[in-house]
Amino acid sequence: MYYQDQQPISVVQGTPVQATAVPSSFQKQEYSNQQQSQSEPILLQNHVTETGGDYNGLKGTQQPMAYNDLFFALLFYVHLAVMAVVLLFAIGSVNGGENNGYDYTGVIYATVVCAVFAVGMSTLALGFMMRNATELVKLSLFFSILCNFVVGILGVMSGQILMGAVGLLCFAISICYAFAVQSRIPFAAANLNTALTAVKANLGLAVYAYVMLALALVWSVWWNVATGGLMYSYGSGVLFLFLLSFYWTHQVLQNTLHVTTAGTIGTWWFAPNEASSYCSSALTDSFARATTYSFGSICFGSLLVATVQALRTLQNILRDKEDFNFLVCIISCILALIQGIIEYLNQWAYVYVGLYGYSYLEAGKNVMTLFRNKGWSTIITDDLASNVLFMVSVGIGLLTGLVGLILASIDKNIFAGIGYEENVGSVGFIIGLLVGFLLCSVHMSIVASAVNTVIVCYAEAPAEFEQNHPVLSAHMRSAWIEAYPMECANF
């Protein structure tokens, strides 16, 4: 029982989050007897016992601990084992490496300095974005218009008429879109601000993000060495399988971070005391679930996207054959459409995987049922927040490029070890730009996952949000009613 000033506190029932996220004190918030008198204390029972069962179309329930989609997790591990054998074979097949005479000390120094700067700026950017969310959403629309215009002009100037025409067409469409979504800007800003607040309260997510980035870099090197060795020995007959392996692993790493973020942000939504520190128990438990019980579901959805990506890469190889240009163009459009659909479904399905521990197919079906029942099909197609995240990543990339330029200007011989003694400023700028954009994009990917999680949680549990985060809830509610009065009437 919970009392304040000798009066029972009325607690809105919450839904426990799959990633441990809801502590026992919060889980015990359900009325045991709705008919008892108001003068009697309200007894609360443990809600976590309500696990499994059919989905009611309005709110998910915590699933029993089980290894979902286990076959795909085992298949992924077998694939890694095969790639390890292939790597050993490739290393044995290639002649011993020889020193090429290059000295990468300057490159490493510039990369480390730029990386430290980019990480610091990305962290500071969270606070700046929280204070200026509305202005950034508006600015991102103009940024999108400018990018399309630049692409169109560059296409025309370079003689690429098709590229120029598409760029200018997108320029015109983006202008119309900017006018059409003016009323939705407050909604996007409120959503983004809530996600940023949750991420800032759990900055340990950034550590997991950079770990995933490091693993992705290691995998890329591993894959290149293994592929080169086998291609040298047997040719390109197994190219598709290698491409599938490459994309599958990268998708698994990316989606593991997405599921971890969803579980952590869900905990912050329902039980903020358990998810308001740099390395909270919600964060560690969310990651543990993502890499164990939900790992098969992550591998399942990732395999679908990786298959299409591998096919698209093979299709690009066929472009060299002019006789098949028209056919290849059609195939390219179809594959791009399929990839977009699967990625769109994945971004929502994995939120439910992280929140409740559903299997991949159940999660996708249930979350789409939720949006359909709420009448939120329009809301989830808006993508204003992602424009902001991309713009911020580009901005920090440019600033980091200036840091690389300054380093090159201070030490003219910084890149002499790799053969660049002239135009070192350009080299420094490019290195800084790439490092800054990559690291900031990793940071912003956490925010993107948090934005999706906020939408799902708000669709399910606005009352819990009001109870735990009243200021953010008031801002969110007013903005959403202004942008989507009909949809928000379904609360």
Shape: globular
Strand order of the largest sheet: 1-2
Radius of gyration, CA atoms, in whole angstroms: 25 Å
Q: Low-confidence parts lasting 5 or more residues at pLDDT below 50?
A: 1-51
SSE run: EEHHHHHHHHHHHHHHHHH
Number of helical regions: 17
Round the mean pLDDT to the nearest integer and report it.
79
Give the tally of β-strands. Answer: 2
Measured as a percent range, the helix fraction is over 70%
Give the distance, in angstroms, between the N- and C-terminal Cα atoms: 28 Å
Fraction in beta strands: under 5%
Chain oligomer state: single chain
Main β-sheet, in a few words?
2 strands, antiparallel
Structural class: mainly alpha
Descriptive notes:
The chain is an all-alpha fold and 491 residues long. The chain has helices at 24-27, 70-93, 105-131, 133-157, 161-180, 185-201, 204-234, 239-270, 281-290, 295-318, 325-356, 360-374, 384-410, 424-460, 462-468, 470-483, 485-488, and strands at 3-4, 7-8. It is globular, with a radius of gyration of 25 Å.
Q: Can you lay out the helices and strands and say which pair or pack?
A:
Layout: E1 3-4, E2 7-8, H1 24-27, H2 70-93, H3 105-131, H4 133-157, H5 161-180, H6 185-201, H7 204-234, H8 239-270, H9 281-290, H10 295-318, H11 325-356, H12 360-374, H13 384-410, H14 424-460, H15 462-468, H16 470-483, H17 485-488
Antiparallel strand pairs: 1-2
